[in-house]
Amino acid sequence: MKKSLKLSGIIAIALSAALVSSTLASAATPAPGQVGSTTLRASHPQKPTSWNYLQDGTSALYVTTYLNILESLFETTATGDLKPLLAKQFTVSKNGLTYTIWLRKATFHDGSPFTSADVVYSLLKNKTALNGILSAPLSMVTSVKAVGPSRVVVTLSRPSNQFASGLGTPATMISPSGYFESDDVGKKLIGTGPFSFGAFRPDVDLTLDAYPKYWGAKPFFKKVIHSFMSDESATISALKTGQLDIVGMLLGAGVDQVKPFLSDSKYSVFFNPATSASYLFLSPTSKVLQDIKVRQAIAYAIDRKPIITAAVGGYGKPSCVVVPTWTSTWNSDYCPYAYNVAKAKALLKEAGFANGLTLDFPYLTLAEFPASFEILTAQLAAVGITVKGRGLDIGTWVQKVWSTATPDYEINHITNNASLLSYGCKGTTPPYGYGILCDPLFESYITKNDQIVSPEKYTAAMKAMTNHITDEAWMIELFSKNEPGIANVKLTGLAKYRTDYEMDYRNIKWSAK
């Protein structure tokens, strides 16, 4: 009996200590949503169609993972410079064909060491990716060789500005050797970043867990819950009610609800510089669209300002040239087909369509695309073009329109941040990819421009290429957009620049004020 009483006393003391410990821990760690909490709750309106970035043709995968879970050799700064990441430095041979890259010591989230073998493996894999943002900057790579555990030599078939700048993009994201042949592929990502791939609830959220063995500065937040919230009205509501700390990007209906937050002292509204071109693209497989007069008529029918107002809440700049980064030196106000209904009708008549024509338009049912579809349908109808619309979810759209050698569309709309150098008939980006449309002049621009060293000559050559694409009207630029985001005003360290739509959680923390 005494033994039992003694044991009971020990249990009671232990329970009491546990309760005190729990209370102290609770007091020391603020709940999510409170200043000081080490859990960040964020959202984005899009979800990836897969975690296999070699096969996923969308940018949604990179939003959550790039720089957070997966790291590239370098990262691109707001000024366009390369900053060391997994690589410490590189040198280039005088002929511009050989890059020697020195690597830092790091550890993958599965505990394996990061070495030159992983770089060789990843670059060769990335070169085969469906997404041109990954594969295009590596298209001129002829070999990647490891020279010891911490040095890699990359050989190119020709000098390339695109490869050099691509060193600081997802094109050089690194996964461990053998990853794409493992059972993990498509299910989880294994990187070297400050966060590891945590609990994933399909269509709901992904949890990012701070990685204790990260080689660099440790993030403030121990956990990030990244929610996939396509209903942007619900997103705004969740932010107002304290269920979210940050809305990384608003792409659809939510942009119309941003204005009140601009004057609300509890929140900060941020706009990243425009790095995306929003444009129509026409199918080269359509017999009707082979006639440039029809393509020109479509271009003349477009009034950009109402589209910007309806689709992105006015947070965009009208443009006729496909230049994703608005600050590029070759950006211009060149616009050979400015809005003109009379000219559009006249061109259709000359092309033999005085009584009009019908075009198939399988549009995306997310972000700005439903609203832009409605405006575009009305504008095209005004010149005699009937649009046969069918809404597609992003997975179906990628499969049937974007990442296929047999696309099923005639006219479409996308917002993309790939450089024009990523297009071309050898690439995978519509309307030129998969050998569907091979424009000899455009192909020569892609090859020659990429090798130009002089900044002045490069700007002139890129401007000539951009103007040529505009003239051909297979791609009809609508606007460059600035996606708004909203955060708790007490959060600091939000990135002011994006490379590829990423939500960079590395430096976010609570303000000390």
UniProtKB/TrEMBL annotation:
<feature type="domain" description="Solute-binding protein family 5">
    <location>
        <begin position="82"/>
        <end position="397"/>
    </location>
</feature>
<dbReference type="InterPro" id="IPR039424">
    <property type="entry name" value="SBP_5"/>
</dbReference>
<protein>
    <submittedName>
        <fullName>Unannotated protein</fullName>
    </submittedName>
</protein>
<dbReference type="GO" id="GO:0015833">
    <property type="term" value="P:peptide transport"/>
</dbReference>
<comment type="similarity">
    <text>Belongs to the bacterial solute-binding protein 5 family.</text>
</comment>
<dbReference type="InterPro" id="IPR000914">
    <property type="entry name" value="SBP_5_dom"/>
</dbReference>
<dbReference type="GO" id="GO:0043190">
    <property type="term" value="C:ATP-binding cassette (ABC) transporter complex"/>
</dbReference>
<keyword id="KW-0813">Transport</keyword>
<dbReference type="GO" id="GO:0042597">
    <property type="term" value="C:periplasmic space"/>
</dbReference>
<dbReference type="Pfam" id="PF00496">
    <property type="entry name" value="SBP_bac_5"/>
</dbReference>
<dbReference type="InterPro" id="IPR030678">
    <property type="entry name" value="Peptide/Ni-bd"/>
</dbReference>
<keyword id="KW-0732">Signal</keyword>
<dbReference type="GO" id="GO:1904680">
    <property type="term" value="F:peptide transmembrane transporter activity"/>
</dbReference>
